């Protein structure tokens, strides 16, 4: 039995499902986290994605959303600002606060990263010999896995 699968129907309690997902998704996540030279890191992608959705945010808001310290977020943001992927400016509602937004260059970098990873996943799916039914199952599972991640 590979990576905790297959799960028997009578084993579908949350603990069994959680253990199986942890085992199977662990390898998947580790492989996706492997950086490609010159590519955005996973934390950078996460920050750019949040800024893309929120349009404006403070360092502390981003840190809270990512569940990291403001200092760690500050380091990630400093690298993004230095590369002109994020810009800092006074908050239009309260000029004492500084807000961050993704730049056009940041949006391009994010689109490229998403395209590169989507292509990598497509190649892995094509090379993996998945049946149509298996691909449909993976597609149906994607929103469930996202929802699970939001609840962690």
From TrEMBL:
UniProt-listed InterPro entries: HTH-type_Bedaq_tolerance, HTH_MarR-typ, Tscrpt_reg_MarR-type_CS, WH-like_DNA-bd_sf, WH_DNA-bd_sf
Molecular-function GO term, any one: DNA-binding transcription factor activity
Lipid biosynthesis keyword on record: no
Domain HTH marR-type: 18-147
Annotated SUPFAM superfamilies: Winged helix' DNA-binding domain
Keywords, comma-separated and alphabetical: DNA-binding, Transcription, Transcription regulation
Name of the protein described by the UniProt record: MarR family transcriptional regulator
Species the sequence originates in: Streptomyces tubercidicus
């Amino acid at each position: 039995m590979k990576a905790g699968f297959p799960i028997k129907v009578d084993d579908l309690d949350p603990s069994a499902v959680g253990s199986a997902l942890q085992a199977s998704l662990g390898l998947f996540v580790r492989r996706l986290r492997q950086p490609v030279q010159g590519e955005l890191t996973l934390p950078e992608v996460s920050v750019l994605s949040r800024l893309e959705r929120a349009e404006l945010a403070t360092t502390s808001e981003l840190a809270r959303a990512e569940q990291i310290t403001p200092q760690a977020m500050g380091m990630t943001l400093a690298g993004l600002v230095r590369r002109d992927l994020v810009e800092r400016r006074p908050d239009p509602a309260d000029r004492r606060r500084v807000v961050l937004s993704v730049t056009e260059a940041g949006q391009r970098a994010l689109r490229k990263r998403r395209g590169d990873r989507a292509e990598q996943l497509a190649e892995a799916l094509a090379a993996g010999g998945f049946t149509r039914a298996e691909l449909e199952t993976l597609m149906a599972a994607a929103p469930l896995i996202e929802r699970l991640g939001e609840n962690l």
